[in-house]
């Protein structure tokens, strides 16, 4: 049975030594997955190669697309999540959401490059998308993808505005406001670029599903 | 089995005649609940008393606290929702969320007046709250209740900022930003005063739960 | 051949006497259409019934949906304009755009209620919409309709954000920013609720088309 | 006959290898112009010198002023565009608009350094400017040039606010708001520094003009 | 010789009795002009008819256009001020500036309806305007008039943004920012709708001029 | 008896030579503590090693956590201050507040890592915290800690918003607004990251306490 | 000895019946002062005249200037508070602060009309002001009074921005930001118009003073 | 007699070669002062040493404090200007204002470090300051100095907000808004850090003074 929220260390501003020390202590002090987010490749290599972790029981893995270090990932369970993203620059945030969700045991499918200016590509995926237990939509610019997807599926839609875009995108504020104002009712929103937050919201939902299944 | 989103008419800016006509046509054209939101008592009375509706098969009910007109409510299903609110002025939004959720078949419990300045009252309810399948948190001012509840329960938390407050509450913008920045990870947010949106997000979750149960 | 911009009086804040006097003088002092915008029905009746205008050569007409008074409308020319709008509350702005455009000689078609949450309704109209010489898109909330239509047609798209919506619509600011950030390239934008501005932008385009045709 | 929107790759954040690969595949997969925007001189040289492109059928050109790489530009057609800009720091955005428009077949004229504080210089060009089929106005600071030009010409005016300026220019927000509030009716606006967007709006207009001409 | 700042009572939020009392005491306690600003016609009549003022030595006058009550105006001196305004809705603010300036002894000329979309009307007045010792420019919408006038005259230009406009005028904020960012160097700005502030800035200048003349 | 505000030099933007010179002159010209804030370790070393200071009567100390240089600290008096902070990234601001307060003679206790998502950790410290004469609360993100602590203690609470956080934390603006809107009445606030300001507010309070004690 | 925070009912949005019922229950359920804030005169009269309160043991009083209803005020203790305000329109907020503080047992002195444009009036009161245990400064417009007073006294200064002012006062936001940025270090701030919050902050200080005195 | 505005080149973003070329051409093409603003020391040296300028008739000077290059400065005339600034970090902006004003012939006096938290220092200079023909006030943080000086002198006061400060200074926005809302009537404002703009406003005033003197 799923338990509480996983341990997630925020990488930025920490040295690889500090990260290694925190991870070592978390691996010892608790069960379940341990993650470090927003880690660049070189820092990741140096964390993974640190003596205390190399000699440890659990070996970590680096997911470069998601900029994520993962120890003790959960195997994929029965809760299915689809992560949909709009443009290529939304990729890192989408992959962070997908990577975290996967590490904590969701069954994740990803659909990238579904900008609303090419509505037919989205429609071609509609049926597949709507089969998931819940959907995370990642989009910058005007964030319209959340409304379109929200209108196509009946399951929970968690929208993640990204800070990509120019002109009047204002570092994600435009997408954030647009998603909060979505004409597709029942869409919920997390903070700008907060792929991790969306994955943890998915985890909360999986907790409920698991709890009900186990009754 | 639960189907799509319910029909919900937005009351403000419509005359009772217009509302009665729309409702009549929705009752004829589809199955399931029909709701009208943000209706004052006098308009409600006049809608309920309109000839076409009085003579119809389905009789409507007015929920004054939620400012909601409801026809053909669904019976309470097995999905449980708790609606928690902070101050008395958050009441109307909390009751809208609860009223809509109830009308579309969720099993709703309400906890009011749980401001974070009186943290012990919240803690006294923590166990009860955490038993629900999901939680809606309604709060204005600094919206801190979402963070506290998000830290206490492992299930989905949907936060609704309200436009109440003064000083620097800026019509709900402060609560909105605070909830989006919640240190309790995985909390998701809807627009200011959008009790209805939160209830529909709950409906989306119930759709997934029902769908899995029926497999 | 089309000439300059038409005479348009801004109604709000003027008495019916003042409006009648201005219109009388404009009818005498120039050729072509004379319009008064944002006029309520009672003021319109009183302007149309004023002695100086009743006895004049040109009789005015009131377009209630567009809240527009029109004298000497141009006959529909060959330039075709489609006005697309998202929700019922975007109606008045869409009708102002359509009404002004029609009065100054464009051949106008209107499509209402094409919210992006129901993407299939939009697609059903796509071919028809793309036949126009240009398209005006009127939408509030998150203004996503401009992106979807911008992706469907190759002709000029002028987006008008409206002040409708709640939650985080911020009186049209959200739709304005979203439209300026549209991922559908080449969409241009006018101010909030500025149906008139969009119609005059259409007039500018018609001027170019006419000028080229008459060469 | 003009077809759809051209292929435009956004340069920033891509390596010259990535750009070369994308361009190679676009040149193979579609007809018509292929552009890469916002490319610095060194990256451009390295893209143009990459083996796959050197050996290709279509040779690219670099427009340093517009920071643009262009393959298969269209020859100038009959649609005339004038690009007017206010200060020297608006130059790059104006040249991007002009460069893109030229590459996709518009007949482009440029007028630089027409700040409104020297109104007589603008007036000296007024007749020439008003001969174009449409005008793009590029200005930062208070963006007043859009209003002045909008008052001088009857054809479409597309305003591009730039992020230049200091004091209270707020990275282009002041110019953006000013252009959206222009007292010269029918002016439309694109996002801050979005010269490309303005050029594509011009392309949309040219599409309509060509389509009518070809009937 | 000119002395300090005149006594000016801010009318809004005060009863006619309160105003009459304050004015009576100011007339007794100091020399020079006494003004009350932003007074509606009925309040003005009732202040002027109050027993204590009717029986006083100095009789007040009401300037309806400027919404100003004036006692003991100074005769026009040698310092000349021109007040230029853009649209009809900028009128009240322009007249407040002119009315206050006149009451405190400046030699005031007014030019209304000089919107920048009709640049030739402004140019026709340029020589006359530039003869003044200083110029106040009153404009709403995009406030471009300040830049144009600032470029035409070498004397001090004080810009007053007004709260008129729609679309993206944001209650005068757009005009305020635009004026602060004016490309015409050396233009200074006062708060939104602050005609009074501009007149007092003019008074400060007149103080310096008088002081130097009297040396 | 406590006297006026201490001398505090703002380090950023000053060379170590400039700092050494200012400190030397302050040590000579006044009595009591002399502090330099926001000094990095290398600059600090170089200031402390500068000839004029090495040869001086008073030797300085560097507090790396607080980024503070201190000469002539006051001994701890009887006024007790507790500094409470939410997350690890709030640490530097909390330590600046604590460091300054300690240097000017308050009796300081620190409690770190008391985020509201873990409410039980806060409650475990409640009694200890409430024993202080006043409390400084340092928090970023949604700043909810100020409300929770404000509800737990009856003594003065000074809230310091920090610029930490992401998503919608907007560089501390969200925490600032939330703290100003705290539902725990009587909480006061200083600027973003202004640990020093909070410490000086504590100093003001200590001044009153000392003054009364010495009567 | 002082105990916790007093009971304060927020009047707006409540009927006189609701207020009377709440007050009756508070008077019965606790000891110490009971206050109702922001009550207009007619509502106050009707509350005071309600049967349950008329027949009660404790008789209430209405303080019209402070818009405050008070039952069981505490006698003035030894803690002295000075409330300083800038303009006449800051009066109601200053009187709310003073009224609440007085009702809960502080020894309150008020100084009104101390705008910084007349710096000599402030200086004339400086000595008297600095004798208080703490000072509340109430100011709108640019809120400069907080900085001046903060520079004149060594005791705690709590600044209350008010929503008065025009031009660029933005409903108190300008004063709020200015006070938070005060160059007089150690000044703390409460929300816009929050006289009550300032009084309760004073109460917190008095709690500490009393607690220390009683040791 | 003074003529038009001086030639001022904005340095940032230009190479020393570009600056040298522009200056050479301006020196040849017009009479009167030529200035380059915001030039760092090394660029300045390289401009001054460029062959075309070294061999020219007029030799330039670099004013490091004002970051200004000056050719053909005007001798000091009879118009006196006082530049007052608040903190040390306001220095560069104040010196830019003073440097430009001096170069174009004003008789400039500077008073630095007059923060309002030390009101007595300002008062000690009041008489001297008020002797000038006009005053420029440069201040960041809460910008209160403009109000205090505005209340002390009767002559024109031009306020320059600076981007210095922290906490809630928001890069000068707080000071800008505060100065626009100054309770000292008749103060006018230029953009953030715009010392140059203030100097040119002073030049406009000098133009009027000279023009009147020469009649
Ligand atoms: N990429 C991320 N985005 C948002 N929050 C994160 C991220 N990574 C970690 N966190 C959160 O940051 C906190 C850990 O911070 P720290 O203790 O500094 O490692 C936990 O609350 C995590 O849930
Ligand atoms: N409904 C409207 N929306 C926007 N602008 C308008 C509207 N009606 C009139 N105007 C503009 O307002 C100006 C006329 O204002 P007025 O002189 O006050 O009648 C003209 O520039 C019109 O183009
Ligand atoms: N300079 C530019 N300004 C704005 N949009 C651009 C620019 N260059 C390319 N784009 C758009 O960016 C998208 C291509 O992004 P990408 O796939 O990352 O190359 C297309 O939609 C282009 O229309
Ligand atoms: N870390 C800090 N945060 C906020 N204000 C500071 C800080 N350090 C010094 N100050 C203030 O900055 C001013 C000194 O600035 P300066 O004269 O530039 O050293 C004094 O008013 C100090 O109270
Ligand atoms: Mg998108
Ligand atoms: Mg709350
Ligand atoms: Mg919409
Ligand atoms: Mg410009
Ligand atoms: Mg204007
Ligand atoms: Mg926090
Ligand atoms: Mg004030
Ligand atoms: Mg200052």
Q: What attributes characterize this protein structure?
A:
homooctamer; 215 residues; alpha/beta; five-stranded parallel sheet; four-stranded mixed sheet; binds adenosine monophosphate; binds magnesium ion
Q: Assembly state here?
A: homooctamer
Order of helices and strands of chain A: EHEHHEEEHEHEHEHEH
| Beta fraction of chain A | 15-25%
Bound compounds, each kind once, are: adenosine monophosphate, magnesium ion
Order of strands, main sheet of chain A, comes to 6-5-7-8-9
N-end to C-end Cα span of chain A: 11 Å
**General shape of chain A:** globular
Structural classification of chain A:
alpha/beta
Uncertain runs of chain A = none
Number of DSSP-assigned strands of chain A: 9
Number of helical segments of chain A? 8
Mean pLDDT rating of chain A: 95
Largest interface: A-B, 38 and 38 residues
Helical content class of chain A: 40-55%
The biggest beta sheet of chain A reads: 5 strands, parallel
- CA-atom Rg of chain A in angstroms: 18 Å
């Amino acid at each position: 049975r799923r338990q509480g929220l996983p341990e997630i260390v925020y990488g930025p501003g920490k040295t690889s030594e500090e990260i290694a020390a925190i991870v070592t202590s978390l691996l010892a002090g608790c069960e379940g997955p341990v993650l470090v987010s927003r880690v660049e490749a070189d820092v990741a290599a140096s964390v993974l190669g640190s003596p205390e972790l190399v000699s440890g029981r659990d070996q970590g893995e680096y997911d470069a697309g998601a900029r994520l270090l993962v120890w003790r990932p959960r195997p994929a369970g029965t809760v299915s999540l689809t992560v949909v993203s709009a443009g290529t620059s939304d990729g890192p945030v989408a992959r962070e959401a997908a990577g975290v969700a996967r590490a904590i045991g969701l069954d994740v499918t990803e659909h990238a490059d579904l900008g609303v200016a090419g509505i037919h590509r989205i429609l071609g995926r509609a049926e597949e998308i709507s089969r998931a237990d819940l959907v995370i939509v990642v989009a910058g610019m005007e964030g319209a993808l959340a409304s379109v997807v929200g209108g196509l599926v009946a399951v929970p839609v968690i929208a993640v505005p990204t800070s990509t875009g120019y002109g009047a995108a204002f570092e994600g504020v435009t997408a954030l406001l647009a998603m909060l104002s979505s004409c597709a009712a029942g869409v919920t929103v997390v903070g700008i670029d907060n792929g991790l937050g969306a994955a943890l919201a998915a985890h909360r939902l999986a907790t409920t599903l698991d709890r009900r299944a186990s009754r």
